[in-house]
Amino acid sequence: MLNRVILIGRLTADPELRYTNSGTAVASFTLAVDRMRSGQNGERQTDFINIVVWQKQAEVVAQYLQKGRMAAVDGRLQIRTYENRDGQKVRVAEVVAEGVRFLDRGEGGNSAKSTPAAPPVKNNTSPAPSKQPDFGPYDDPFADDLPPGFEEDLPF
């Protein structure tokens, strides 16, 4: 069985960074992803997909990504349920990111959010005790993942 999602899109808002009670960083954001084909009226259709990022990668995403930036997300689809304040069960679909790659550079300005893209990070890396964070080795989430001949089947 396989549960793998690869998305490329633009952030609809700045990532929201939080910490669990145990101190684990978790960031969430929504990625706007255009569909391959236009709708019946010829208009481009877009899906808005919730993304969750954990650990050190969550902190890096919150620091360097912002609304409008383009990113690639490699992860798995997760469906979870919870009970809201009214006692109703709510079902949520989201992508739990295993890798996030920044695909463009921030626009001018002096804030940390507008600096050039940071090196991509994979989850399960730990920071080195230095002034510059050690992002550890990065495996390109798109390398060698496609089956042979897959690209020949694409409609573009």
TrEMBL record:
**NCBIfam families (alphabetical):** ssb
Q: Which GO terms describe its molecular function?
A: single-stranded DNA binding
GO cellular component terms, A-Z: nucleoid
Reading the lineage from the top rank, the first entry is Bacteria
What is the name of the protein in this document?
A: Single-stranded DNA-binding protein
Extract the SUPFAM superfamilies matched here.
Answer: Nucleic acid-binding proteins
What quaternary arrangement does the UniProt entry report? Answer: Homotetramer.
